[in-house]
Amino acid sequence: MIKTRFAPSPTGFLHVGGLRTALYNYLIAKKNNGKFVLRIEDTDQRRKIPGAVENLLENLKWVGIEPDEGPGIGGPDGPYIQSQRLSIYQELVQTLIEKGCAYYCFCSPERLQQLKDWQVAHHQPPRYDQHCRNLGPAAVKRLLDEEQPSVIRMKIPSEGAVTVTDLIRGTVTFPCDQLDDQVLLKSDGFPTYHLANVIDDHLMHITHVIRGEEWLPSTPKHILLYDYFGWEKPQFAHLSLLLNPDKSKLSKRQGDVAVEDYRRQGYLPEALLNYLALLGWNPGNEREIFSLEELVQEFSLERVGKSGAIFNLEKLRWMNGYYIRHYSFERLFNLARPFFPPGSETNPDKQLKVLEIIRDSLLNLQEITEKSAFFFAEHLDYNHSSIGEWLLKPEALPVLNSLSAEFQSLTSLSGARLVPLMGNVMKATGLRGKLPWMVLRCALTGQSQGPELHHIVEVLDLNQCRQRLQDAIHFVTAKRDGR
RNA sequence: GGCGCUAUCGUCUAGUGGUUAGGACACCACGCUUUCAAUGUGGUAACCGGGGUUCGAUCCCCCGUAGCGCUACCA
What value of ipTM does the predicted structure carry? Predict the structure, then answer.
């Protein structure tokens, strides 16, 4: 059975790059009727952030990529949090010592630092000098008995090369003399990533390791470890990185990288997922819109690209707008409700009508707050330049007065009534064309642009319209009189 | 510095030993529209450079160049 895993460290939030990795893992698993595992790599105690695991789970749930096995979910190969598996690593690393594939190292951090400083100063590659590699058993036993702090390092063969077979990149060969005698077990008894990920992937029966490109250079060490243990290796696939607009590795500095940031701004999970799927993968035809289920059908690693992809917010925004326009209205409304202006929640019917009207213009749900504000406001602010262009024209006042009279005589309001009503206004004022319409728009909305007036008028009630026309008249006369 | 990965419009990408090098976002123009948006039509825009191989290279090979990644008792 195909089994994949997403193995983040719990450092606080789910990164969009991490989400893409999780998605690809999920897709491969689901496409093959396999399992998708979530594993928490918390072997660095210093970097642990409380609540990070819950946050991770919550965000994965939001986008609809739920692990089959993992912390809080369970599964046959748990626990799925590495800090709860310490004895497993400690036991297994001993077998490596016994086989002569690993060794105790008693070098102090200070010595290591000095070594590194010297190497850097002399333009040598910074690597461990294997000082403890050939310590005799007696010496090791003595130092251990003295309880000298120690780590366990892996032995890299002194010659040869390791070839990585990668589903995306083909074969990549690394000479052994470029590899370091990597620490496997730290002095605090925790494993390093290299040890823990190999052991866990094996014990959890992971068949495909799909992870970021930053792991490619350490993959030969992992391969060596599989061989030392005598275990079957999983398939590897290293994904290109997500980049900032300046092509550096996608980082917080240059915009939002946390999934929750996009959630907060009113991006739809389907849109974010769809966009991320296309960053590095394409279906081989010109289709771009895919549901998660459709991605499961269509996805394949063969069509995953090798080069880094810039995270293009503009296209995400477009795609989000597309999803907003094509979503089921009911679901959209449910997601949209928190974004309406405070106070408007007492009038859900109106919220609903407003959403219908402004839906096409939205790129994210957060825009609802601003774009719906005038529907719910007590009073509008007319004092800004974009509408002054219309309201401050000398012809505006007669139009407003005529509009006001017309609205007074109405007993009910509908979009269909607007055209005859405007006909009357034009007749009365002798003005035609764009201006009367724009004056009405500005008076009713406080803006020079927005949804169609006959829609607006259906939502605003008659008294509200009358009030706004009066407000606009007051504003215009006050301006005219220089107050 | 060493090792490794990568290289098609501004961006995401398709593609081929001979193509008008295709699509999408963005951008521009036009249409629709009382405004904006949505939408429709059209348009501008790309094969990193140099050598080979070949009748012919964007595509295959080599060398550069550039970008990125790794180079921890971090993941």
Answer: 0.95
